[in-house]
Amino acid sequence: MDGRDSAAGRLPVRSSAAVSAPARVAAPAEGISHEELALAARNHGLPLEALRYDVTPPGLHYVLVHYDIPATDAGTWTLAVHGRVRTPLTLDLAALRALPQVTHRVTMECAGNGRARLTPRPVSQPWLVEAVGTADWTGVPLRVLLAEAGVEPDAVEAVFTGADHGVERGVEQDYRRSLPLADATAADPEVLVAYEMNGAPLPPQHGHPLRLVVPGWYGMAHVKWLHDIALTDTPFTGFQQAVAYRFRQSPDEPGDPVTRIAPRALMIPPGFPDFMSRTRVVRPGPVRLEGRAWSGRAPVTKVEVSTDDGVSWEAAELAPPDGGPWAWRHWHAPWTAAPGHHVLTARATDAGGSAQPLTQPWNRGGFGNNEVQRIPVVCL
Hints:
The chain is mainly beta. It has helices spanning about 35-40, 95-100, 140-150, 180-185, 240-245, and strands spanning about 80-85, 90, 100-110, 130-140, 155-170, 170-180, 190-195, 200, 210-215, 225-230, 245, 255, 265, 270-275, 280, 285-295, 300-305, 315, 315-320, 330-335, 340-350, 375-380. The strands form 5 sheets. The protein has a 6-stranded mixed beta sheet with strand order 14-15-22-21-17-18, with no helix packed on it. The chain has a 5-stranded mixed beta sheet with strand order 2-1-10-5-6.
């Protein structure tokens, strides 16, 4: 049994505390656990040298799977649109592909990116800075589907259900998230019900055969293996919305929701690495520093580079936003490397005035950590 209520099509809340521990923060001297290593083995980040690609190859794009990659069959897959709509819909892949399609280039980042750099460390998927990727997503605008279904005047949210099923903090569930109706029906950014990634069918780990793409929002909003959209007249209070993905200082506060991506710049590590420490080695002389910058709040307008661990900063040159408003931008800057030890870093600022911090405020879930990247370099 999968725990669904066949009448309502919903998963009842269950207590599974015997196999699912509550969230916690690591003790001061506690190392990465076997459980965290197992998560890290299943979920991979972008190799930073892959920042050279405008569009991330699917196998290099970051992946986070909450439970299991479900077995799916594109030939029998359907998407239901129901709830507070005038005309409920059930669409198979052929019907979706027959509708007008669009392609958007979108940079996607995990909300927990940078979690493992916090002290004390929230115990979960131990991301450093690599949980990001950019892809060309093709599908049907969500607003087109909702217009065809006819949204009732009292609808306030759209709730999205994926086929991945598991237990988290004692609650058995399908993965489910919601968006306010204004975001679900917006023309910019335009939410997609996507069936292609970089011009090919979605790979299994990226939601085959159907997923949500929400430009500008952290990855938890981009529901994979999407099979159900329900319009509701009350705000959704499911686990992934009201319990997980909240900015909290303590476990007993309601917290604020995690939504849009904070600005970030990442640098392609120059030179070549030591195998274990990843310390970079460069030769004396001219070195081209380059990377990508993005924000889900407003367009990136400035990237600065430091070669002395933030003591001084120089402006980098930003490439035009050719990938569109929701994709990262390339940047580059010159550096003349001198023998010795250096710490390289970059920081992004967006049009709203948000800039990356040099030190990151702490939160219990380890979300939205956009502290600047630091790359130790030895020039020999």
